[in-house]
Amino acid sequence: MPVDGAKSAPRARPCPICGKPPVEASKPFCSERCRDVDLNRWLSGSYAIPARESDEDDDMDQPK
C-alpha cells in the first residue's frame, strides 16, 4: 500500500479465455484470437443464458 495515501490503479481482470493480462485494443481479452474464440463460443451455442419458463408465458400464446 502506498505510504503517501495515493490510490493504486485497480487491477484489470485477466483474459476470460486464457488468463493473460488484457490488451487495450482487445479488452477484456488479451488478443484478437481470444476475442474470436469467445465470439465463436457465443455463435455456436456453447454459451447460453439460462431462462425460466413461467405460467405467464403460456397464457400469452392462447387467444382470449
UniProtKB/TrEMBL annotation:
Classification via InterPro entries: DNA_gyrase_inhibitor_YacG, Znf_NHR/GATA
Cofactor(s) required for function per UniProt: Zn(2+)
Chain positions recorded as Zn(2+) binding sites: C15, C18, C30, C34
Matching Pfam families: YacG
GO BP terms in the entry: regulation of DNA-templated transcription
Molecular function in Gene Ontology: DNA topoisomerase type II (double strand cut, ATP-hydrolyzing) inhibitor activity; zinc ion binding
Region (Disordered): 45-64
Protein's UniProt keywords contain Metal-binding: yes
Family, as annotated: Belongs to the DNA gyrase inhibitor YacG family.
Subunit structure, interactors included: Interacts with GyrB.
Matching NCBIfam families: PRK01343.1
Main function: Inhibits all the catalytic activities of DNA gyrase by preventing its interaction with DNA. Acts by binding directly to the C-terminal domain of GyrB, which probably disrupts DNA binding by the gyrase.
PANTHER family in UniProt: DNA GYRASE INHIBITOR YACG
HAMAP family: DNA_gyrase_inhibitor_YacG (MF_00649)
Annotated protein name in UniProt: DNA gyrase inhibitor YacG
